[in-house]
Specification:
Distance between the termini: 74 Å
Structural class: mainly alpha
Largest sheet: none
Shape: elongated
Radius of gyration: 29 Å
Number of helices: 1
Oligomer: single chain
Order of helices and strands: H
Length: about 90
C-alpha cells in the first residue's frame, strides 16, 4: 500500500480533500473568467477564432498539396530511373 493510502498516518486523506477543494475552486474561477471574457470580448474572439481557423485550414491545405507534389516527384523520378535502367 502506498503512503497516500495508509490509514495509519491520519492526515493524508484530509490533505487530499483540501487539495481537491482547492482544485475545484480554481476550476470554478477559470469557468467564471471564461464567462467574463465571453461577455466582454465574445464578438472580438469570434472574429479572431474565425481568422485563425481559416489560416490553419489554408496551412493544412498547403501541406497536403505539397505532400502530393512530392509524391508526384518521387513517382516521376522512380519511373525515370526504371526507364534509364532498362536502356542500359
Amino acid at each position: 500500500m502506498n503512503d497516500d493510502m495508509n490509514p495509519n498516518t491520519g492526515c493524508e486523506m484530509t490533505d487530499r480533500l483540501i487539495n481537491l477543494a482547492d482544485e475545484a475552486w480554481y476550476e470554478l474561477l477559470k469557468d467564471k473568467m471564461k464567462q467574463q471574457i465571453q461577455s466582454s470580448c465574445g464578438e472580438k474572439l469570434d472574429g479572431l477564432a474565425e481568422f485563425v481557423t481559416n489560416a490553419n485550414n489554408e496551412r493544412w491545405t498547403h501541406m497536403i498539396t505539397g505532400k502530393a507534389k512530392c509524391e508526384q516527384f518521387k513517382q516521376g523520378l522512380a519511373e525515370m530511373m526504371i526507364a534509364g535502367a532498362s536502356e542500359e
